[in-house]
Specification:
By secondary structure, this protein is mostly helical. The chain has one domain. Helix content is 77%, strand content 0%. The protein is built from 4 helices and no strands. The radius of gyration is 12 Å and the shape is globular.
Amino acid sequence: MDQKSLTAKLRELRAQLAATKNADPHTLALLTEVTADLDRLHDESQPSTQEDVDSISGRVQSLLTKFEAEHPRITSVLQQILDGLANMGI
């Protein structure tokens, strides 16, 4: 996945997040935080450490597990973003 595709997926994730009505507030707050973290990883002007990447990846994986049944579209977009970051070596 190239930078342009990743940017599009992050935009799609933010749109899906905004459209989510039935998630609990705590989960939405976590998703918002993780989305901001993913944006920072994607921002080439802010170097990320391996510790940052591992932390964010772990939190996204936890959210994926939690969201699989209730929010399949968000789960799909998050997984695509993770795959894209991994393909880019992040």
